[in-house]
Design goal:
- The complex is a heterodimer of chains A (233) and B (703).
- Chain A has 233 residues and is mainly alpha-helical.
- Chain A has helices at residues 4-10, 16-28, 30-41, 44-59, 64-70, 74-95, 125-149, 154-160, 173-180, 184-207, 215-229.
- Chain A has 11 helices and no strands.
- Chain B is an alpha+beta fold.
- Chain B is built from 24 helices and 20 strands.
- Chain B has a 6-stranded antiparallel β-sheet. Chain B has a 5-stranded antiparallel β-sheet with strand order 3-4-5-7-6, sandwiched between helices.
- In chain B, a hairpin with a 2-residue loop joins strand 6 and strand 7 (135-141).
- The longest helix of chain B has 34 residues, at 483-516.
- Chain B is elongated.
- The chains are: A mainly alpha (233), B alpha+beta (703).
- At the A-B interface, helix 7, helix 10 and helix 11 of A face helix 1, helix 8 and helix 19 of B.
Chain lengths: 233, 703
């Protein structure tokens, strides 16, 4: 199986195509990295700058040599790389005598409006990263599925989307069928088809970040755990 | 991404779906569903639809099933009647998915028996449990009323109501915890209020039925147990290590919700900020229960109860209202509400003032020359420190009793400050006596005493800073604490540091006093007495003073081993001055002996009664040399008569002072130990005494 990540790995990120692959991967997982940086440093304001700087450094290809050696999952690689990056930044800041990249609590402007992100107060940054990673995968997968279905099925998708996470009492096939003007059987079939497709997409996304096809199930299990660790605050 | 704040619950796992959830779906359930095989599990039997009344009635012929009264993640509850006993019961049917889990039957048996043992007025009792027709069930006490959730919905709780409910919950929790049963799922839905206003906790330990995997904290179906908002952090992170303090956390969440109507999510503010009329001391109780680190929470449900009851029994302090600037960040005191007796400085000042009176009262009883400043410093500081010590101990007892140990360490350190003042004070006080006993100003002793105080001061400053720093480190990562609390801690550090500095300055002051104050005896020395050997000098006394001793203030001075600086001159007060007219009886009565130290007459009014040298030669009366000097190592005994006791004492003081000075000049106490017993005094024929003992003799025999 050749995935974006295996491609990056095999070419050590030297070819133009590999660089493109890496860029796409990085675009996709910007959110978890940002979440990690924010959680790790405690700086809400500066986290974005650091995340930008991190990806810029990464895409310049400076640290791809170590990538090739690890041959692990893209997730592990990215987390390791961002930690290295932050450590370097910290060293730089210290050298500049401007104070380290340490966690500070703002004495005054506690940002109440800050998004109530999942239980950050309970989570170590690594777990926080993993959680956001899993969410990123799900988000991209949902978007991909929606795009695949096209504009004409957008409303249907909106209505049937809740079934993607399984059945629940609140979800009534009949009600949706009525509002869509189709039979419950059609609804059930559609759900079944979409679920299948959604699984493929999710697994595809996961697959693009691991170096071995056998790792997909493991990674999936890992991500479930990551979400379970704090599926709610 | 959806920016609006959703408060939607996942229909599957009932957890809140956050704003960052993909497509508004619970990410966990979504991912989990992805992982499911695409086979027959596509449409798993829906566990969430409760069995119909008919099917339940069929399964439980011994009951009359009345209605479905509740349903949740842990099964459905039916209201039923036991016709034989004619009582209404609650029948709980556990969900089928649990029954499918491995080893569930064993667990159910074990836990069921444990629950049946929980017989407490505030716990919903379990009458029976078992398995019928594939349904695992529990027959429980039926509570006619509402749960807290429903109560919340109908009306907001007043703080008083909350304060009356919480202790009941605590009682029940404590009872269960003592029985070794954790609830694991304390939430408003599980707290019932019956029509008579009684509080009952339901579903005790039911969560345990779900059988948590000790490693992952997941059930076999991958679900976490407990209700996320109410779960303690460790319940999420290390479910294997959950203990009763997890219930205390959940209780804290319920408490918070009762007071504010909101859940303590994210960086939540203290309850009193949300509900203005609230006693700010409640904040401490709630926030402590919500500590992320369970070590910092109340360590038992009883502790919470004590604190809450303490609050409801004492007048409220709605400090929030009195604050003028609303923009100011809330001040969250780092310790639980300080007892009012500490908070009222006037009382403390009054205590200190009263305690000051005591040494003064003692002093009034000793007329004559006042004791040294050094002595006063010691005594006063010793007394001053007593209220501080007592208050400190009371505060600690309060902290321990109330179970609020947050400020304990700092309180102990504060007490250490007072105790060390007390100690240093008494050391100063006693050392004054000790130094007098040896009739020296021994710089070594002095330095040791003062260095002790110095070290105490510095170490207090350091310990104070250290403990406070630790405290700050502990609370800083906790967003629950307002930033101002950290500021308060910093202020506490500075205050500690200043106290340390004050003690240090005080120690230096003592050091200075020691060096500048000449040695004077203290009245208290008398009581400790001279433990040396008076016999050393008694054999040498051969003075004829009996005739005068009864009515005169007589001072007998024994100069032992000589004092190089002591010279005595006889003076002719009549003015003849040549001293050559010897043995004239008229003249002899007018001669007075004066003691002179380095050219200064110490007591012109003193009348010499007798003087005798150690070798037995009578110096006076007899054939008095008008001027005589004692040679080194000579010993002589002198007797003076004074017009009154005050002059006698003044004279003696002067002699002692001069001696001390000369000794200091000779090399700061080095090699002068033989001179330590240079002077011995006696007044009015009392036994030979030394140093300040003469005061006692004065007071006892002259008055």
């Amino acid at each position: 199986m050749t995935t974006q990540w295996t491609h990056v790995l095999s070419t050590r990120g030297e070819s133009a195509a590999a660089k493109q692959s890496l860029k796409e991967l990085c675009d996709r997982y910007y959110a978890p990295v940002f979440a990690f940086v924010e959680s790790y440093t405690g700086h809400h304001q500066n986290a974005r700058d650091w995340t930008h700087a991190f990806f810029a450094t990464l895409l310049e290809g400076q640290s791809l040599d170590s990538v090739a050696r690890e041959r692990g999952k893209f997730r592990s690689y990215l987390l390791g790389a961002v930690k290295h990056f932050l450590a370097d930044e910290r060293a730089k800041l210290k050298a500049d005598k401007r104070g380290g990249l340490v966690s500070h609590i703002s004495m005054h402007d506690v940002d109440e409006s800050e998004m109530e992100s999942a239980s950050r107060r309970f989570m170590p940054p690594d777990a926080y990263f993993d959680r956001h990673w899993a969410i990123a995968i799900l988000k991209h997968s949902l978007t991909d599925l929606e795009i695949e279905l096209g504009q004409e099925q957008a409303e249907k998708f909106r209505l049937l989307r809740p079934w993607l996470s399984g059945d629940a009492v609140e979800l009534s096939h009949a009600a949706v069928a009525a509002s869509l003007g189709v039979s419950t059987e059609v609804v059930k079939t559609t759900i079944h088809r979409w679920r299948k497709r959604f699984r493929e997409i999710v697994k595809g996304h996961i697959g693009s970040t691991v170096s071995n096809a056998n790792d997909v199930e493991d990674e999936l299990g890992y991500l479930i755990q990551a979400l379970a660790a704090k599926s709610q605050p | 991404m959806n920016a609006e704040t959703r408060r939607q619950n996942c229909p599957k796992c009932n957890s809140v779906i956050l704003a960052d959830a993909p497509g508004g779906l619970c990410p966990h359930c979504l991912m989990q569903f992805v992982a499911m095989s695409t086979g027959g599990a596509e449409f798993p039997p829906n566990d969430h639809v409760p069995p119909s009344l008919e099917s339940i009635q069929a399964a439980f012929p011994q009951l009359e099933i009345i209605e479905l009264i509740g349903q949740g993640g842990m099964g459905a509850v039916y209201k039923a009647r036991q016709p034989k006993l004619d009582r209404i019961v609650a029948l709980k049917i556990l969900p089928l998915r649990l029954a499918r889990e491995p080893l569930f039957a064993d667990r159910f048996e074990r836990e069921g028996r444990l629950l049946a043992r929980l017989n407490h007025p505030n716990i919903v009792g379990v009458y029976d449990f078992g398995k019928t027709d594939g349904h695992y069930y529990l027959i429980m006490e039926y509570v006619d009323g509402v749960n807290l959730r429903q109560a919340f919905a109908s009306a907001r709780f007043t703080p008083q109501q909350a304060l009356s409910v919480i202790p009941k919950i605590c009682e029940a929790l404590q009872f269960a915890h003592d029985e070794g049963v954790l609830h694991r799922d304390i939430k408003p839905e599980n707290i019932l209020l019956d029509t008579k206003g009684r509080v009952k906790i339901a579903d005790f330990g039911i969560a345990k039925f779900a059988g948590v995997d000790d490693k992952t904290g997941l059930t076999a179906t991958g679900a976490t147990i407990g209700t996320p908002h109410y779960m303690a952090p460790e319940q999420v992170e290390q479910p294997a290590n959950v203990d009763h303090r997890a219930d205390i956390f959940s209780l804290g969440v319920v408490f918070y919700e009762m007071l504010t109507g909101e859940l303590p999510l994210g960086r939540f503010s203290v309850p009193s900020e949300r509900t203005k009329s609230l006693d700010t001391r409640i904040d401490d109780v709630v926030m402590r229960a919500l500590e992320k680190d369970r070590e910092l929470r109340q360590q038992s449900a009883n502790e919470v109860r004590t604190q809450v009851e303490l609050l409801s029994n004492s007048p409220p302090q709605p400090a929030m209202q009195s604050r003028s600037a609303p923009s100011k960040p809330p001040v969250l005191p780092p310790t639980i509400a300080t007892p009012s007796y500490i908070a009222r400085p006037t009382i403390a000042i009054a205590l200190i003032a009263a305690s000051l009176l005591l040494p003064f009262t003692i002093a009034i009883q000793y007329p004559g020359p006042s004791p040294t400043l050094f002595f006063w410093l010691g005594l006063c500081s010793a007394w001053i420190s007593i209220p501080g010590t007592v208050l400190g101990i009371r505060h600690q007892v309060y902290l321990i009793q109330s179970g609020h140990r947050n400020g304990l360490k700092r309180s102990v350190v504060a007490s250490m400050f007072w105790v060390s003042i007390l100690f240093a004070g008494w050391i100063m006080y006693f050392s004054n006596g000790i130094m007098n006993r040896f009739s020296i100003r021994d710089p070594v002793t002095t330095e040791m005493v003062s260095l002790f105080a110095l070290a105490a001061g510095v170490s207090l400053a350091i310990v104070g800073m250290w403990t406070t720093k630790k405290h700050i480190e502990r609370i800083r990562p906790n967003p629950n604490y307002a930033a101002s609390a950290v500021k308060g801690e910093v202020a506490a550090t500075i205050s500690f540091f200043l106290k340390g500095i004050a003690l240090t300055v005080w120690a230096f002051f003592g050091l200075i006093i020691v060096y500048i104050t000449p040695g004077t005896p203290s009245p208290h020395q008398a009581t400790t007495g001279y433990s040396g050997t008076p016999s050393v000098v008694t054999p040498d006394l051969d003075l004829q003073i009996d005739s005068v001793s009864t009515k005169e203030n007589v001072l007998i001075v024994v100069v032992k081993n000589g004092n190089p600086s002591l010279n005595m001159n006889t003076h002719d007060v009549t003015g003849t001055g040549d001293g050559m007219d010897t043995m004239g009886s008229e003249r002899q009565t007018e001669v007075k002996l004066q003691v002179e130290f380095r050219g200064e007459f110490i007591q012109p009014e003193a009348q010499v009664l007798a003087a005798q040298s150690h070798d037995g030669k009578c110096l006076y009366p007899g054939e008095p040399p008008e001027i005589f000097s004692l040679s080194a190592n000579a010993t002589c005994t002198l007797a003076f008569a004074f017009p009154n006791s005050a002059t006698a004492i003044a004279c003696m003081n002067k002699i002692l002072r001069e001696q001390a000075r000369s000794r200091e000049r000779m090399g700061m106490g080095m090699g002068t130990s033989s001179n330590a017993k240079g002077l011995l005094f006696s007044i009015n024929g009392a036994s030979l005494v030394f140093g300040s003992y003469v005061y006692e003799a004065q007071f006892t025999s002259v008055r």
